[in-house]
Structures are given as C-alpha cells and as structure tokens.
Design brief:
Layout lengths: L2 H7 L2 H23 L32 H37 L1 H16 L2 H12 L3 H12 L1 H14 L3 H8 L4 H9 L4 H24 L10 H8 L8 H28 L1 H8 L1
Helix pairs in contact: 1-12, 2-3, 2-12, 3-4, 3-6, 3-7, 3-10, 5-6, 6-10, 8-9, 10-11, 10-12, 11-12
C-alpha cells in the first residue's frame, strides 16, 4: 500500500469522516430501495413524534411525510450538488490559475483582475441571484455555486504555477521541445494537484451548506427533496414539532464535519512540510 494512502487511512480524522460519508452515500444510493414511496407523499398521520412508530423512526412532518425517507432522498441532492459544483469550480479555477501562473505578465494581470472581481461580490448573494435568474433547479444551483467558488482555487493554482515554472524539470521540458500546453498539463499541473485535492474536499462541504441555505430560503428545486427545504419547511412549527428541523440539521452538521475531517486529513498527508515533520 502506498505510504501516503496508509497514512491517510490510519489518520483518526480520516477514519471518522469516511465512515460518516460512507453511511450518507449508502443512504443516497439505496434510498429508492429502502423507501420505495415518494418522499413527497403522505405516509402516516401528521406530526407523528419520533420513535413512536417502528415504520417511521424519526416521525413525520406537518403533511404526514416520513422524515427519515426525506433525509435519505435529500442526501442524493446534497451529494450531487456538492460534488458537481466543486468539479465546476475546480476546473474553472485550475484553468484560470494555470494560465495566469504560467504565462505571467499581461495574462496574469487580466485573469487576476477577473478573479478579484468575483471575489468582491458576496458569494451567497451572488449565488442566490444566479439561481433566481436561471430559475430554481438542481442544475442552476450547481452552476451558481460553481461560479462563486472558483476564485480561491485559481489563486492557489496560480501561486503553485508561479513557483514551479522556473524549476529545472520545466526548463528541461522546454529544451526537449514540448509545447506550452504539454508543459502546463503534463509537467506542472500534476505537481500542483495535492493542495487542490485537499481544498476540493472542503469546498464540497461549503457547497452542501450553500445548497441547504438556498433551499431553506425557498429557491431550491421544487421537485426534489433536500435537507435545506426540510429545515425551512419546519421553521414555522419548530415549537410544535422540533424533530422536523432537528434531524435534517444534525445530518447537515455531521456531513459537513465529516468532509472537513477528511479535508484536514488529506492536507496532513499531501502537504510536504507536514509529511516531513511526520517522518522526523
């Protein structure tokens, strides 16, 4: 087993985070099997408290919908939005950062001004505006979160490229006649991916929180059950049915915590300075 992978899998933070994420992923995958009924349909009497009926462990909401089924189906949306929007942000950020860091000069100045422009806009407000313009849907939420999340990736990749472009292996690639595209994508980029991977895991957590907040405010996909929607729908009856907002809130907390633990463990493993300290 690779030494880095072994260090990662023996890291207590990684183990805890991966166990939580594995349970959430399994719930999302097998939700249609475990809960064949549509999560929007009435399943029992309204406001059934948790742990009083073996068929509905976490109770029901004001319309008699199964809370546990809603959590399982909501995991699908949270994971899809979190992963897909992070992929969009990483692709855009890597492209901007690689071009700016490699070419420098006017290209660097122009791309960094664009990056700074996006960073001056409040990210959550901008995401809400984009979702409202594009009309609420899973795709519009993915696009909106991806658009507001790429600047930190661009800055990270730019700094990595700026420090690596003058290294000997890059100069050797130039002497061998490799094109700029080959040098960027085959020589420098692989050496910059470690911090990007660690950052991406944290970005997934941020994207899940953003999606939950957007759905909480009523701009989520009206056809898809989500954790944010469940919390938002329960805010008017929180004194009467505390469990309606409590369980979705706990799940959001645990998933975000798990992603942060995995991100920190990845950073411990992939950060060269931390790796050297671990060997000393």
């Amino acid at each position: 087993m690779n030494a880095s992978l072994r260090r990662f899998l023996t890291n207590p933070k990684a183990v805890v985070g991966l166990v939580i994420l594995m349970l959430v992923v399994l719930a999302a995958i097998f939700a249609p099997v475990i809960f064949p009924r549509n999560p929007w349909q009435m399943a029992s009497r309204p406001f059934l408290p948790p742990f009083q009926d073996a068929k509905f462990w976490l109770g029901t909401d004001m319309l008699g919908r199964d809370i546990l089924a809603g959590l399982a189906y909501g995991a699908q949306i949270s994971l899809i939005v979190g992963v897909a929007s992070t992929v969009v942000a990483v692709v855009v950020g890597v492209l901007f950062g690689a071009l700016a860091g490699y070419y420098g000069g006017f290209v660097d100045d122009a791309l960094m001004r664009v990056t700074e422009f996006f960073q001056t806009i409040p990210t959550f407000v901008f995401a809400l505006l984009l979702v409202a313009i594009l009309s609420p849907s899973v795709m519009s939420i993915i696009i909106a979160i991806g658009v507001v999340s790429w600047p930190p990736v661009a800055r990270l990749v730019r700094s990595e490229f700026a420090s690596l472009r003058s290294r000997d292996f890059v100069k050797a690639a130039v002497v061998l006649g490799q094109s700029n595209r080959q040098i960027i994508f085959s020589q420098i980029l692989p050496n910059t991916m470690s911090p990007v991977i660690a950052m991406a895991s944290l970005m997934v957590a941020s994207a899940i929180l953003t999606e939950a907040a957007i759905s909480f405010l009523g701009l989520g996909d009206p056809n898809m059950m989500s954790w944010g929607y469940m919390v938002g729908a329960a805010r008017t009856v929180i004194r009467q049915a505390w469990w309606m907002s409590f369980f979705p809130g706990i799940v959001i907390l645990l998933v975000v915590l798990a992603l942060n633990l995995v991100g920190e463990a990845l950073n411990d493993v992939l950060n060269p300075r931390l790796a050297r300290k671990g060997r000393q």
